[in-house]
Every structure is written in C-alpha cells, then in structure tokens.
C-alpha cells in the first residue's frame, strides 16, 4: 500500500484486499483453514479513476459474448466448459481422401459443420445455457446458440477454465467421445452459478460469473488512466494479497519494526553472559547480528540508526527485566516520525512463521559458509597484469 500509485488511496485498496482474502476462506482436505491467494484475480480495465476500482464476489474475465444476439445475462446458469474447437471439424493432415465425384466435396464440408452442430446440440440438450471454450466458435454455429438463448464465450484461457470449474463444480471436457466411440455430453459435467453476465466497463466488455456453488473466488477490478499505472497497481496489489493471505494462514503475528530482533538480541546478549565457555562469543555475535534488521530499517528511512538502536535496546532491556507482561516488548521503530512506538497497538505486524523461517534460513546460511575450509582462487593471467 506504500507504493507511489496506491499510497493516496491506501484506505480503499487495503479494505478491498482484506475483504478479497477473507471471502475466499476455505477448508482443505486435511481440515485446515486456508486462504488461497490464487483464488483472487486482478483484472485491469483502462479508463476512469483509481477510486472506481471495486471488488467483485465472483470470477471476471476480459472477454465478451461471441455474438450480439446472445443473451447478455443468464440467471440460474448451467455452464459447460469445453477444451476443444467449436469450429468446423478439419480432417487430420495425414488423412488422404479420394473423391471421384466433385459434387461430393460439398457434402464433406457440410458434414464437418454438422459434427460441430451435433456437439453443440448435445450440450444444449443436456441443459447447458452457457458454453465456454478455450478455442473458437464457428460463425454459423452461433446461430444455434442464439436460437436456444445460450450465452457462448470463446478464447477463454485454460487456467481460467480450471478456476471456473473449481468454483462452479463443472468438469472441463476435452472430448465427447466415450468408450464405445460415440459422442455424448453428460449433464453431470455442467457447473452451476446464480448469474453469468456481460458488463461494459470503459471501452471493454467483461464476463462475470457470480453466485457459484463454491465461494472460493473473487476479482479485483482495477481502473486507471493508463496501462503503466494499471501494471504498477497489479504489482502492488499482488504483494498486498500475498502478505494478507500469509498472515491469515499463520494465525499468529508478532510486532514489526524491528521489535522482535531487538528483543531477541537483548535476551541473547544477557544469556551469553551466563555461559563460561567459548560458546559465549558465538551467542554474543548472533545477538549483535540480529540488530542489522532494525539498523537497515532506520538507514533506509534516512534516520539516525545509532541513536534509535540505542533507545530500542534500552526499552527491550527494561522489558526483559520486567518480565513477559511488560508492554515494552512490543516497542519498535516508527519510520515516519523517527521515534519509538508500540507497534502492536499501531497495527504494524508480521506473520510469526515468516519471522521464524527467516531466522532459520539465515542461521543455516551462516553455518554453511563457516563450514567451508578451502578457498580456490584463480589468479589473473600474467599478460593482464602488465597491461
């Protein structure tokens, strides 16, 4: 939210991000509550102001109806998702056909169209009133959809097909052929949604699938003056969505702003003085290394790192002496005012598992480097030395 694009509208987008992640809350096969980030998509729509960006409880795509005669809104939709071409069936390149009578060539072409027509009619007979395909739809085939009041959408991304299938309970069909060689379309392959419709936003159209059987789906529609701004918004929102999703998955947070590192550094420094062996040096150096995080935060904010770290150590030293009930353990840096504050009360938080993993990975990396005994050095060529 601190990016140069979203900074002035942080309140709007922060609420939008939190609502999007909490709306896709689900329980996995192991009984754990998860917040899948991939269930939230970001749609970029050129035009208008950032303030007109909105959250849609459903799945949206930058697509439109295949033909204007099709219905723009379908209620109680039964959706067929197919991953094959709905244009005229073409014979394989390796197939040779010998025609003695030229008049039969037209019959072959007509049969190619009839095969596609029969496939569409099988879907409609199964109860489908929305047909989505990752391929194209023949112009002549759209007539049958229009006559049956069916909404057809073509050129849907395969990734979007899979996500729609997951939220609507549909099955992505790759072929209609069964074991006996006949083509059939089973009604159980259809997905359900309360509404599928086309919305006109700016200069583009958008297909929205809402009211699905599984609510694990949300879309943030971003509006902006140009595509540079929209792409920057997408990157910032992606970071924010991941941060909120990981925080919700963690179910535990710690105070940010260097509070954890400073508290751990003071505790380890005091613990090192209780050791009478050479391990005291290793623990003391580990405690000193932890202060790199708050020092870097202060330097990046153009603040006096030495003065702030000294004050931060004093606060956490008092917390260590007072016990675990002291509010001083939540004291961290306020990089906007250059002072110390209670970051738990200020809402500056970090997921606890992420903090634990960072410390573990950094320690493992340091141990790996310390285990190196030899260093192979390649000396430069003598000719290069005299140049």
Quick summary of this structure?
This protein has helices at 10-23, 104-125, 139-147, 158-168, 227-250, 259-272, 279-290, 292-300, 305-322, 343-346, 352-370, 382-385, and strands at 26-27, 33-34, 40-46, 54-56, 58-61, 73-82, 130-133, 151-153, 172-173, 191-201, 204-212, 218-224, 253-255, 331-334, 339-342, 349-351. The protein is an alpha/beta fold and 387 residues long. It has two domains: 7-249, GroEL; 255-371, GroEL-like equatorial domain (GROEL, domain 1).
Descriptive report:
The protein is of the alpha/beta class. The chain folds into two domains: 7-249, GroEL; 255-371, GroEL-like equatorial domain (GROEL, domain 1, Orthogonal Bundle). Helices cover 41% and strands 20% of the residues. The chain has twelve helices and 16 strands. It has helices spanning 10-23, 104-125, 139-147, 158-168, 227-250, 259-272, 279-290, 292-300, 305-322, 343-346, 352-370, 382-385; strands spanning 26-27, 33-34, 40-46, 54-56, 58-61, 73-82, 130-133, 151-153, 172-173, 191-201, 204-212, 218-224, 253-255, 331-334, 339-342, 349-351. Strands 5, 6, 7, 8, 9, 10 and 11 form a seven-stranded mixed beta sheet that branches. A three-stranded mixed beta sheet has the order 3-12-4, with helices on one face. A hairpin with a 4-residue loop joins strand 14 and strand 15 (339-342). The longest helix has 24 residues, at 227-250.
Structural class: alpha/beta
| Rg from alpha-carbon coordinates | 31 Å
Distance between the termini: 52 Å
Mean pLDDT: 86
CATH architecture descriptor name of the largest domain: 3-Layer(bba) Sandwich
The proportion of residues forming helix, as a percent range, comes to 40-55%
> What is the number of E strands?
16
Report the CATH C-level class of the largest domain. Answer: Alpha Beta
User: Could you name the CATH homologous superfamily of the largest domain?
Assistant: GroEL
Poorly predicted segments:
none
CATH topology description of the largest domain: GroEL
How many domains, as an integer? 2
**For the report, how would you describe the main beta sheet?**
7 strands, mixed
> How much of the residues is beta strand, in percent?
15-25%
Shape: elongated
In DSSP terms, counting alpha (H) and pi (I) runs of 4 or more, how many helices?
12
Order of helices and strands: HEEEEEEHEHEHEEEEHEHHHHEEHEHH
